């Protein structure tokens, strides 16, 4: 008998969450460098002021509707933006579909992108359709993705920040460019620092942007090794709170579990964009080894502590870091860029 997917069944999904929250409350409770190192080309907040003045309202009408209908669109789109920016820059190359007649797989079909939720792609498709109907041929998919990600941060309770615009869409989308440009759940802090630095991002940016894991979910495969056989010890990771360990083991068996079962990143406020992520790390409640590692490493621990104490500081730093991430490898003009009419296909 097949077990229902948490993505298709809100019931299983809710039950899972309930198990987590109940368990916790019942006690006392080598990167390839993208052009980021080059000086980012100038983006501006008022880029579409004349050509599409109502742009942000148009996108906002879609994001708020999506958020009501499918709240997972928020984490889905924020992650989509991150995965876009880290591979070939923020140029909507992640949205390109593999051409069936072409042997070259597009970015979105790379192994590391296979678990990106459809809700993120759907949001951009809907927003693009509306924007094209009002401002045809003017607005890039890359800018729509950047604005939608910001909208969802805000809709989920996080900060509102101005998005600079003027990105063109990229002409290259290859799955082969993905593996060394994205971090993994078992990446060491050293590897994370190197990868982020190859994109022009600092250690502080790494810690601050990881705070996006204050909302959203991860599948068991990304953390199951921590539960049963941490680094080949045949023991759980000692840096997991025993109550969380117990709860996670109930959902994620050592082998043969349902590949679609997910656990929330933030066990305390899983749907709210707040700074609880950092306090959770201090309490050994980080979900991925890469999350918990930020509290264990002396280079990142003080940042985790300070962001955990000050929500306003996190919000301010997150807004600035998203702006910085949003400038990675930006393309301008026809030589390297295009303005797609449909985000999933080149012009
Ligand atoms: C620092 C290194 C990072 C690692 C190793 C990492 C890894 C992961 C993994 C393994 C998942 C779970 C995917 C799944 O099972 O569906 C995930 C989800 C997520 N990531 Fe990250 N991530 C990192 C940084 C970031 C950054 C910088 C952002 C955004 C600024 C981000 C935003 C998200 C969001 C919002 C989700 C939840 C997605 C959802 O529920 O659909 N992550 N990440």
TrEMBL record:
One of its GO terms (cellular component) is extracellular region. It is found in: Secreted. Coiled coil: none annotated. It catalyses: 2 a phenolic donor + H2O2 = 2 a phenolic radical donor + 2 H2O. The active site is at 83 (proton acceptor). Its main location: secreted. GO terms for molecular function: heme binding; lactoperoxidase activity; metal ion binding. One of its GO terms (biological process) is hydrogen peroxide catabolic process. Residues 1-29 form the signal peptide. Its EC number is 1.11.1.7. Substrate binds at residue 183. Ca(2+) 1 binds at residues 84, 87, 89, 91, 93, 107. Residues 42-347 form the Plant heme peroxidase family profile domain. Binds 1 heme b (iron(II)-protoporphyrin IX) group per subunit. Binds 2 calcium ions per subunit. Heme b binds at residue 213. Disulfide bonds join 52-135, 85-90, 141-343, 220-252. PROSITE patterns: PEROXIDASE_1, PEROXIDASE_2, PEROXIDASE_4. The record marks 79 as: Transition state stabilizer. Keywords: Calcium, Disulfide bond, Heme, Hydrogen peroxide, Iron, Metal-binding, Oxidoreductase, Peroxidase, Secreted, Signal. Ca(2+) 2 binds at residues 214, 266, 269, 274. Its cofactor is heme b; Ca(2+). Belongs to the peroxidase family. Ascorbate peroxidase subfamily. Removal of H(2)O(2), oxidation of toxic reductants, biosynthesis and degradation of lignin, suberization, auxin catabolism, response to environmental stresses such as wounding, pathogen attack and oxidative stress. These functions might be dependent on each isozyme/isoform in each plant tissue. This is Peroxidase. It comes from Theobroma cacao.
